[in-house]
Amino acid sequence: MTRAVLSIGSNLGDRYAHLRAAVDALGDSAVLVSGVYETPPWGDAEQPPYLNAVVLAVDLAADPRAWLERCRSLETAAGRVRDPQRRFGPRTLDVDVIAVWGEDGEPVLSDDPELTLPHPRAHERAFVLKPWLDLQPYAHLPGRGRVADLLHGPGLTADADAMTPRPDLPLESQE
C-alpha cells in the first residue's frame, strides 16, 4: 500500500464542484480531506482566486507513477487545458502529487522531471502546507522538514495569512 499527499485546486468554472468531483472520484482512496481555503493566485497574479485543499490518500496497488496518472485523469475529467504560455495560469482543476510513501513507510524520492518527489515547490506554497497541517499537525515534507516550520518560515507567513477558510464548502465524504 502506498500513501500520497495530493494538493487540489481550482479557479475556473464551478471551483467547488471541481474539487468535490475530484474527491468523489478518488473514492475510498481519499482517507482524509482538509477543509477548503480560498487563496490568492500563486505565480501569476492576473487570474481569479483559487479554492485549495489537500487529500491524504492510500492505495493498495498505486506506485508513484500511478498516482500521477490518476491526478492527470482527474484534471482531464474536469476539462483542464494546459496553456504552455501560462505555466501558473488559471485552471479548472489542478491536482499535484506532493509526496508519496512506499509500502515500507519510507518516502519515495524521485528527480524525474515528469514526477519529482517530493514536489519541488511544495515547501514554497502556503496553499499546500496549511491544509496539510490541518490534517497532520506533525507532518514532515521529505527532505524539507516539518510542515509547521515551513509554513511559519520567511515568505510564507503573509501567504498563509491571505488564505480564507471556507467551512461552507465541505469536501469530506458524503456517504
Structure report:
This protein has 175 residues and is an alpha+beta fold. The protein has one domain: 7,8-Dihydro-6-hydroxymethylpterin-pyrophosphokinase HPPK (Alpha-Beta Plaits). The chain is 26% helix and 26% strand. It contains five helices and ten strands, in the order βαβββαβββαββααβ. The protein has helices at residues 15-26, 64-77, 126-135, 147-151, 157-161; strands at 2-10, 30-33, 37-39, 50-59, 94-101, 110-112, 115-117, 140-141, 145-146, 164-165. Strands 1, 2, 3, 4, 5 and 10 form a six-stranded antiparallel beta sheet that branches. Strands 6-7 form a two-stranded antiparallel sheet. It is globular, with a radius of gyration of 15 Å. The two termini are 24 Å apart. The model has no long low-confidence stretch (mean pLDDT 93).
CATH homology-level superfamily: 7,8-Dihydro-6-hydroxymethylpterin-pyrophosphokinase HPPK
Give the beta-strand count. 10
The assigned structural class equals alpha+beta
Mean pLDDT: 93
Proportion of strand residues: 25-35%
Separation, N- and C-terminal Cα atoms: 24 Å
Order of helices and strands: EHEEEHEEEHEEHHE
CATH class: Alpha Beta
Q: Radius of gyration in whole Å, from Cα?
A: 15 Å
Low-confidence stretches: none
Residue share in helices?
25-40%
What does the largest sheet look like?
6 strands, antiparallel
CATH architecture descriptor: 2-Layer Sandwich
